[in-house]
Amino acid sequence: MFAGIALAEAVDKVHNEHSNLDLKNGELSRNLKESQEQLGKALASCTSLQKENNGLKLEMEKMNEELKSVIREKDEAVTCNKQEVEEAKKQAMTEYKSSPNFSADSTRFHTEALKIGFSLCLEKVRLDFPKIKFPDYSCLEVAKEAHSKCLEVAKEAHNKSSDSGESSGGEEEEEKN
């Protein structure tokens, strides 16, 4: 009878252990499933971040190319600007040397040369390279300022000649212009 009781206790013990193992196995299965879900979410998040990172890299490459393009345009504008200034100087010099009113020291020559040279050059460069931002203070304003200073000098010269009794019509004509 002891053998029957011992056998029943052993079977009961094995059954309890088996039930405990089933419970632990179920808990481990749930934990494994949760871990797999979390891993899947983390992997999806990582994939999303990788795509975003790749998108940012592409955007940075585009911005870098655009920056290089703007730098090239600026360099071309500077080169073009130098060439345009030289051409404008030559053109102004040729026009005014052939003019009947030409005098190397005349106010009109210097003012007109500045106006033509600066305005031709700057406006052409601004039109050719619209992406480049140039200062608001235009070369035409510089030419106007130079013109007003030249007029002041001409007035002073006229006043000096008037004080000494000399007056020339050429200076009065220049003051009007």
Automatic annotation (TrEMBL):
Region (Disordered): 154-177
Residue spans of biased composition, Basic and acidic residues class: 154-163
Annotated coiled-coil segments of the chain: 18-91
Key words, A-Z: Coiled coil
Name this polypeptide is given: Uncharacterized protein
Organism in which the protein naturally occurs: Corchorus capsularis
Lineage: Eukaryota, Viridiplantae, Streptophyta, Embryophyta, Tracheophyta
